[in-house]
Amino acid sequence: RVVPIKDIKTYIRAAAQVHARVPNARFVVIGPEDEDKDYAADCRALVTELGLDHVFEFAGMVDIAGWMPKIDVLVLTSLSEAQPLVILEGGICGIPVVAPDVGSCRDLIEGAGRGGDKPGGIVTALVDPEDTARAITKLLRDPDMRDRMGVDLRERIVRDYDRNSVVAQYRDLYQQLGAM
């Protein structure tokens, strides 16, 4: 969604920096623009102001399954998240993620403290276009790292977030709490 809490402006500013470093990069915001029309208009104006009209797209509502194969790096710049489903969706497709350290983004990207977890992307500082741009650029310039992180994220999502795993985690929690 193109709303302030998703901090699309940080993504746009990061895109400008990435474009200067990786001129063939393309950027897309997927999601509706009708929830906060003024903010969406500000975002579009920022794209124009930064000279990104030819490399930046607001796709609106889309069939996400059709878009996933086209995405090299999934970028989230939200100010707040609980457990962002987009990381789970991208992860199951083997797409590495760049996201700020909010909510469970770090747990999803790096693992929830299990030893041996390999990163499935890069965690960035909040509201930091430069840090976000560095992370995106790093992944775009290193396809082997990008592919490896995508595989590692997919493995973690399958291991920790498939239905059977989640049910087992709840069962174990209830058993522990019931034994107290």
Largest sheet: 3 strands, parallel
Count the beta strands.
5
Overall body shape: globular
Q: Approximately how much beta-strand content do the residues carry?
A: 5-15%
The helix/strand series, from N terminus to C terminus, equals HEHEHEHEHEHHH
Fraction in helix: 40-55%
Assembly status:
single chain
Provide the descriptors you would attach to this structure in a database record.
8 helices; 3-stranded parallel sheet; 52% helix; 180 residues; mainly alpha
Question: What would your notes on this structure say?
Answer:
- The structure is a single chain.
- The protein starts with 7 loop residues before the first helix and ends with a helix.
- The chain is globular, with a radius of gyration of 17 Å.
- The chain is 52% helix and 11% strand.
